[in-house]
């Protein structure tokens, strides 16, 4: 994974970490399911009018909208509203990473021992934070947050399988799907007019805190964050990108400490450092792996030595070549994307 793409993945983690603060603020103004619906409505209306539909199989767009949109955000917002602290929610929802790895393995993707070791270390750090913060959490919010994490994993795999030519269009069109089911759930659980009254009050009261929090969750999370994330999921296997989501709780806990007066203990600091270290280990290939060239794409068997030799004889080395064969794998995909 290139340095630039690692930085982009870290940037998404910061956006999504701050999103937990925005959600906590927004829930002071709007009902939870209605808030999750409106974060998609804000984006869905201009998308339908101005953005061409991406050329991807409809089934993957539907799975992405159901998992990443309805399940993840609907249940996560509800969990935070009924008692899950935002910092702890940011930790528990990172179960999406191992869920993604499991689903990726079922689809034929592979992870190296180094990646697995990094995941184990990061999960250990995440679990340590969760244990410390789970003292006062009820069972239902925890279960809802875990199911929300599985929805995120569904979205990751759907994005990987869809391989959209325009990842940002794919992320934007995903926002068209969740509003109807979420608004239906809001009407059933919160009342048909409760959310709309809250929205009207926030727009006419002169206090823009609620609307700003709503716009942040919609634009920073859906448009910017998901667009970059989908681009990375297209270029690399799910097991390479997913570990970066474990940086989200580090950001969220730090923000909660500053803005929500949550106490940061030495245990939390050490556990957060373990998460960061695990991500770095899990997403950095060893020197031997780098010298061997990029890994084969998911579902594609590695080339035999004789076949690699024939390819080398057919293609003369160019001035930018630094290894025996650079015609396959994620690195080539990144270069092709940059050229287009």
From TrEMBL:
**How does this protein lie in the membrane?**
Multi-pass membrane protein
Main subcellular localisation:
membrane
Annotated region Disordered: the residues are 286-340
Instruction: Give the transmembrane ranges.
Output: 32-51, 58-80, 86-108, 115-131, 137-158, 170-189, 209-229, 241-260, 266-283
Pfam families, sorted? EamA (PF00892)
EamA domain residues: 7-129, 142-281
Alphabetical list of InterPro entries matching this protein: AA-Vitamin_Transporters, EamA_dom, EmrE-like
- Annotated family: Belongs to the EamA transporter family.
Q: What is this protein called?
A: Integral membrane protein DUF6
| Species per Swiss-Prot/TrEMBL record | Streptomyces clavuligerus
Provide the organism lineage as a comma list. Bacteria, Bacillati, Actinomycetota, Actinomycetes, Kitasatosporales
């Amino acid at each position: 994974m290139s340095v630039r793409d690692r930085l982009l993945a870290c940037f998404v983690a910061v956006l999504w970490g701050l999103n937990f603060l925005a959600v906590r603020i927004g829930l002071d103004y709007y009902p939870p399911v209605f808030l999750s619906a409106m974060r998609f409505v804000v984006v869905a209306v201009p998308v339908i009018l101005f953005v061409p539909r991406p050329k991807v199989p409809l089934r993957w767009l539907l799975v992405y909208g159901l998992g990443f949109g309805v399940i993840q955000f609907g249940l996560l917002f509800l969990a935070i509203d009924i008692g899950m602290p935002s910092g702890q929610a940011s930790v528990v929802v990172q179960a999406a990473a191992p869920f993604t790895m499991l689903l990726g393995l079922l689809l034929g993707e592979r992870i190296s021992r180094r990646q697995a070791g990094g995941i184990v270390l990061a999960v250990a750090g995440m679990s340590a934070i969760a244990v410390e913060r789970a003292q006062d959490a009820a069972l239902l919010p925890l279960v809802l947050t875990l199911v929300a994490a599985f929805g995120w994993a569904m979205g990751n795999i759907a994005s990987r399988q869809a391989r959209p030519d325009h990842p940002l269009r794919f992320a934007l069109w995903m926002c068209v799907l969740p509003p109807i089911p979420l608004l239906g759930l809001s009407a059933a659980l919160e009342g048909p007019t409760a959310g709309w009254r809250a929205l009207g009050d926030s727009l006419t009261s002169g206090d823009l805190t609620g609307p700003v929090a709503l716009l942040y969750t919609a634009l920073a999370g859906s448009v910017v964050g998901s667009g970059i994330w989908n681009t990375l999921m297209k270029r690399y296997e799910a097991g390479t990108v997913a570990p970066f989501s474990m940086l989200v709780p580090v950001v969220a806990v730090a923000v909660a400490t500053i803005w929500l007066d949550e106490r940061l203990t030495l245990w939390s600091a050490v556990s957060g450092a373990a998460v960061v270290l695990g991500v770095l280990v899990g997403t950095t290939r060893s020197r031997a792996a780098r010298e061997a060239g990029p890994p084969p794409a998911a579902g594609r068997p590695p080339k035999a030595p004789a076949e690699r030799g024939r390819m080398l004889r057919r293609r003369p080395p160019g001035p930018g070549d630094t290894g025996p064969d650079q015609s396959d794998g994620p690195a080539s995909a990144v270069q092709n994307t940059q050229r287009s």
